[in-house]
Specification:
Elements lengths: L1 H26 L23 H17 L4 H13 L3 H14 L4 H13 L3 H11 L7 H13 L3 H14 L4 H13 L3 H13 L5 H13 L3 H8 L5 H15 L4 H9 L5
Helix pairs in contact: 1-5, 1-7, 1-9, 1-11, 1-14, 2-3, 3-4, 3-5, 4-5, 5-6, 6-7, 7-8, 7-9, 8-9, 9-10, 9-11, 10-11, 11-12, 11-13
Length: 269
């Protein structure tokens, strides 16, 4: 039965890592020049909002979008919040309209590509990201996003090359190191993944999503208590509970907690 345990672990790792990388791709626009990653009315970062606040933010920005659907900044912010609410198809529809109105805007093309990736349109997303990139002024965010998409397409060697190119432009950037670590999660090399993710989490400006990815890599190795401790770090009680819920939701796919615990204790019969 060892082969079936390996198969279960492979499916689990791929499903969990793709979700985490998808979050990284979706969040990448939060550091761009066109969007601040926070809602102007409250000044609160999107990543720190609870579910109710995210719904309210979607309603508020949605009203601004309806008034001026051609505005790039409003459209990108709206799509970001929609993705945080799990409304990927609607986010993609928003970015399609914004891209029609701003066909040469590099930030819009980047956000459009990320929306396509979040909606599962990976080949289209890759093409859009490549259109947004300029060889004479390469953007590390686009390099990292391209790598994340390539990882989801199963092209890990190319993906890691893009991450390293991004690191050449922006050394020690936490989001790039995090995506590189998740690439090794996909390859089931959890020790290497943990090394990169710990480095990512130690960088100035590392956000909650980076710690979530580290917690995932630790949890997938069976160190569940340590994973929860990482997920709770430097957050308010509400944010910590949200992070732990996120971690558990990923690790409970296909009864992951039980399967991995049994596997780690040597129960392969």
């Amino acid at each position: 039965m060892a082969a079936s345990v390996t198969s279960v672990r492979l499916r689990l790792l791929r499903g969990a890592a793709l979700l985490a990388i998808g979050v990284a791709v979706a969040g990448c626009a939060g550091k761009s020049n066109i969007t601040t990653g926070s809602i102007a009315r409250t000044g609160k970062p999107v990543g720190e909002m609870n579910a109710s606040e995210l719904r309210n933010a979607a309603d508020s920005i949605g009203q601004a979008y309806e008034k001026n659907p051609k505005d790039a900044a409003t459209g990108i912010n709206y799509a970001n919040v929609l993705r945080m609410n799990g409304r990927n198809e609607q986010a993609l529809a928003v970015m399609q309209q914004v891209a029609i109105s701003n066909p040469n805007n590099r930030e819009v093309l980047a956000a459009y590509g990320k929306a396509q990736a979040a909606a599962g349109q990976l080949e289209q997303a890759l093409n859009t990201i490549l259109r947004a990139q300029t060889p004479d002024r390469p953007d590390w965010r686009l390099k990292s996003a391209e790598g994340a998409i390539l990882d989801q397409l199963g092209r890990s060697a190319e993906a890691r090359q893009r991450y390293r190119e991004a690191l050449d432009i922006q050394p020690n950037e936490s989001s790039i190191l995090s995506n590189l670590g998740m690439s090794y999660v996909l390859a089931r090399d959890l020790k290497t993944a943990e090394t990169y993710l710990r480095s990512a989490a130690s960088q100035p400006g590392a956000d909650s999503s980076v710690r979530q990815n580290l917690a995932l890599a630790v949890g997938l190795q069976g160190r569940f208590q340590e994973a929860e401790t990482i997920a709770r770090q430097e957050l308010t009680a509400g944010q910590a509970e949200a992070n732990v819920a996120y971690l558990r939701s990923m690790l409970t796919q296909q009864n992951a907690w039980k399967k991995l615990a049994a596997d780690d204790s040597g129960n392969t019969n």
